Amino acid sequence: MPPMLQFLLSRLVKAVLVLGVVVILNFLLIHAAPGDPATVMAGEAGAADQAFVDQLRTQFGLDQPLYVQLGTYVGHIVQGDLGFSFRQQRPVADLLLERLPATVVLTLSAFVLALVGGVALGLLAALNVGKWADSAITVVALLSYATPIYWVGLMLVLVFSVNLGWLPAFGYETIGAGYSGVEKLADIGSHMFLPVVTLGLFYMAVYTRMMRASALEVASMDFVKTARAKGQTEWNIVTRHVLRNAILPILTVAGIQAGQLIGGSILVESVFAWPGLGRLTFDAVLQRDYQVLLGVFFVTSVLVIAFNILTDLLYVLIDPRVEITT
Amino acid sequence: MPQTETETQAPGVAPPLLEIKNLTVALPDEAERPFAVEKVRYTLNPDEILCVVGESGSGKSVTAHAIMGLLPKPDLRIAAGRILYRGQNIVAMSEAEQRALRGHRIAMIFQEPMTALNPLMRVGDQIEEALIIHTDLDRKARKARVVEMLDAVGLPSPETLRKSYPFRLSGGQRQRVMIAMALALKPDILIADEPTTALDVTTQKQILDLIKTIQREHKMAVLFITHDFGVVAEIADRVAVMRHGRVVELGPAQEVLTAPKAEYTRALIDSLPHGRPTDATVARGGPALLAAEGVTKVYRSGGTRVSKRTELVVSDNIYLTIHPGETVGLVGESGSGKSTLARAIVGLLKPDGGRILFQGTDLLSLDRAGFRPFRRHVQMVFQDPYASLNPRHKVAEIIAQGPIAFGTPRAEALARARELLGVVGLDASAGGRYPHEFSGGQRQRISIARALAMEPQLLIADEPVSALDASVQAQVLDLLADIKAKLNLAMLFITHDLRVAAQICDTVGVMQHGRIVEYGAATEVFGHPTDPYTRALLDAIPGQAWHASHPPSGGPPS
């Protein structure tokens, strides 16, 4: 078997094991939280008596011992069934599938923006170390890093939507406009702009700071001097020698953070009323909608594990010193 | 002064290829002296090897970097003077013009082959890069040239090696790649900045031979920077000696080596480890202080993730004894297992098998608490004086820490620390300062004082002088010899430098691939080596013919 395939297989086996543990932990954690869907639904229904709550509990299977509930849940997961939301009266899988694209589009764009912007700005700062460009970039990065995400979101809305009126403040697309084709894309793009910037800015600041430090370190290395001694131009030295070496530590962190972005998007989706997983999660928490929450956790876990495998593969491609062993 | 030799050129003599005229390089304002190099002048002719010798901070490397236009900006700048390449002033050239010379007509190789190559690029591509920059050769012609160059520097199977990444190659092989890269465009001048300093002695010999051969073949001019007069004796046609940024002596190698004019040159040559075994004989009778029996250690690294997995056997069945007052030297090349053995004795790592007997007690059988009393009997001095002292602690505290940990009252330990500073030749006031305020040699003295504070019976010195300049090295070696005589201290002295080992050790063990291949009295091992590896090591010592014919004027203190 080729080593690459062997590596992937072994990682997949491990991923399944990890996922199993995560599923069980998620379940236990959620049930450790006070309250359950029955009390919330009963509360919303007005003054409900204990009999009504008990009836709801029996209906949802909440009256069973915890290990039985866990067994039922795991059994369903193994069969690929993510459960049913009594709250929304729909299968959890449907809910997730409906929301997932919006979140993936948002987080992926923010991730790419953070990575590309961070690497570019960090490199620029490192090349101009000590000059005004470096200082400006460092200050902006520090500010974006230190400012709470939701506040940045609110301020951006205030400036670009409320005051200037350039961009829509919330939502995924203009409701009822009936756009199609290019127009539809442009519409979604304009809606995406602010949330993506808000979410991406924080991570971009992290990457900028890392990239600056990393590039400075690499630029002082002997092989950069070797390249210069060859008569290589500064531009080629940066692109051919500094960039590739300096980006390695960024990849490691980015791989871990790619999974976290979904968590970060909960706030941003709430601020911008973005119809994604984040909003779904937020609502589910308030409503103690266990099935939906567990579904979201499950999907996030899968994404995190997938990103980790992807990062390891990327490392093998970029750094020849890293080899695949199983 | 001999520095003016090029001013009056005899007609018919080829003009110098490179002329450095009154070069002055300014240091930043906060530096301890205003100029890195001051009014340096020397010339480099076609078809010659000019060695520039000096200790660290002498400006030998700065001059070379100035020629290449590689001075670190903005810290160092050329304040005055000219660098003439075929009559054209490099200093006045634009960046683009300088770039056209760099790597094309003037090429450079560096000290550290392990870091001088881009780890993410195939070595062939790195050589090809120089060809892409400076020639119009098509891809096929470039590939052919790369293979040709790799072959010319004596690398095996160049066709496959071309596609290797640097981490696959040894230090010597990487330095060959660097040479291939530097020579790819058949430059007029090769600047070699301590190219063999980081290499093992046998590899050093090969690289020196290679540089010499190629130089003769292409009638190239080589500017060879080194701190080692042995290397100078091996390859130089002419020598320039530098000190504190100035050229103090310049002349034909034969003259400088045998009849140095400048006081400083003489001092430098005298400070070389003379390599003659000590006359004093130590009685090796009686019970051994320390005996290592059948010590083995296997290194495994790597795991199940994306990483390398290697298994390395170091210290394979080692037998070694040290008697009170005896200095045992362990010599060998990097990776031979010298340091592993030393670390096992101090208890810094756990061997996989064997016994280490200290006065009859097997140290390996002891648990942590049982080992503790032995810690003070065995002390260690490390190689890098810059990394082995805690930068946040004052010197007196560093020295007193050990005794305090073993119950000596603090005031007493600190007083003793100041005494010890005197013993190692430092002022007692040094105790109140921090390590960074001291030079490398001084720091190594502090390290020795720290070890002595525990009143050890055995001192383990792991390459204690390899990071130091020759003159400082001699002083520290003298100090160690002095201390061991006064205190009747047993010492395990680890070094890669056979000249140093010969000078300070009573008994020598030669290590190769984790084994001691030869063990005996220093006079015997160096005088009549029986093992082929020992012979190869001795043969590789640079400048032997010169050492033999010109014993240093100073000589060892009798």
UniProtKB/TrEMBL annotation, chain B:
Q: Which UniProt keywords apply?
A: ATP-binding, Cell membrane, Membrane, Nucleotide-binding, Transport
Q: How does it sit in the membrane?
A: Peripheral membrane protein
Name the residues that span the membrane. Answer: none
Molecular function GO labels: ATP binding; ATP hydrolysis activity
- Carries keyword Amino-acid biosynthesis? no
- Please give one Pfam family short name: oligo_HPY
Protein's cellular compartments: Cell inner membrane
Question: Any keyword Nucleotide-binding?
Answer: yes
- Per the database record, which ranges form the ABC transporter domain? 18-269, 290-538
Main subcellular localisation: membrane
- At the top level, the lineage of the source is Bacteria
Q: According to its record, what are the GO cellular component terms?
A: plasma membrane
- PROSITE patterns per the UniProt record, alphabetical: ABC_TRANSPORTER_1, ABC_TRANSPORTER_2
Biological process GO annotation list? peptide transport; transmembrane transport
CDD domains per UniProt: ABC_NikE_OppD_transporters
Q: Member of which family?
A: Belongs to the ABC transporter superfamily.
Q: Which NCBIfam families match?
A: PRK10419.1, PRK11308.1
Q: What name does UniProt use for this protein? A: ABC transporter ATP-binding protein
